[in-house]
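Sanity check record (used in CI):
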Amino acid sequence: MSTVTYAREGRIARLTLNRPEVMNAINDDMPRDLEAAVQRADADPEVHVMILQGAGQAFCAGYDLAHYAADPDNKITQPMPWDPMQDYQFMWANTQAFMSLFRAHKPVICKVHGFAVAGGSDIALCCDLVVMAEDAQIGYMPARVWGCPTTAMWVYRLGPEKAKRMMFTGDKITGTEAAEMGLVLKSVPADQLDAEVDALAARMASVPVNQLAMHKMVINQTMEATLTQTQRLATVFDGITRHSPEGLNFKARSEAVGWKQAVQERDEGKFDWTRNRQIPGNSD
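Expected output for Crotonase/enoyl-CoA hydratase family protein:
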C-alpha cells in the first residue's frame, strides 16, 4: 500500500496517508489503499481504535489536480458527449472506499493538520471523530465550480443552514471555526494535536471492542436511512459539475494556465466560468 501506511501500537492502528510530496493529494490508488488499511484494522482482534492521519505538511489537499484537472488524459473529465455512468462508476467506487471509515465496526479518529480540503474533507468527515489543529483548514472549494462532495457528510454534521453556508461559498475555515460550528469534535494548538489525539485514542481503546462496535452501529444507523440516497445524488451531480459548460471551462483553464492559477481564480471569485472570462472589475 504505497499511498497509505499501516502500523499497530497495542490496541491502536495508525493509518497514514503517504504522499507527502503533494500534501497527500488523492490519486487513483489512494482510495483503494485506504480501504484495504481500514479492513486490515477492522479484521485485527487486537485493534480497538484507528487513527487516520497524513504524512508531511497536511492531512490531505484533495484530488491531485496536476493529473485530474491539468492533464487532458484522466478518468474524471470525458470528451463530449460524456457517459454519466462511466463517471459515476469511478467516483462511486472512491466514495465507498472513503466510507469504509464510516462503516468499519471500530471507531476512527481523524487527526487534521495543515489542510483537509476538497476530497480531503470527504475523507476526514467520514471518520467518527475529527480533531483539528487550530490553524488547520477545512473546506470544499470545488463547490464553487467543478465539484460536489460525494460523501455528502456536511449536512449530517452541520445541519442544513450551516452546510449551505459552506457549499454556497466554497470557503475554507480554520480548525477553531470548524469546532465552534460543530463540524468537528474539537481543535487544539498545533503543538498539542498529537498528544490530544493519542490521549483520546488511548481512552477509547480501554473500552471492549464489542462495546465500541455496538455504540457505533446504533449511532450510524440514524444516518444510514437517507445517507446512501444522498450520496448517490451527490455523486451524479459531481459528474455533472465536471461536464457542465462551467466545469469544462474550468478544465480548459487549468490546462491552459495551470491548475494553481485556475484554482486561485476560482477560490478568489475572479473568474466568470459561464462566460469563460475574468469578472469585470474583479481581477488584478
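Residues 271 and 278 are 4 Å apart (CA to CA). If this sentence no longer matches the regenerated C-alpha cells, the check is flagged for review.
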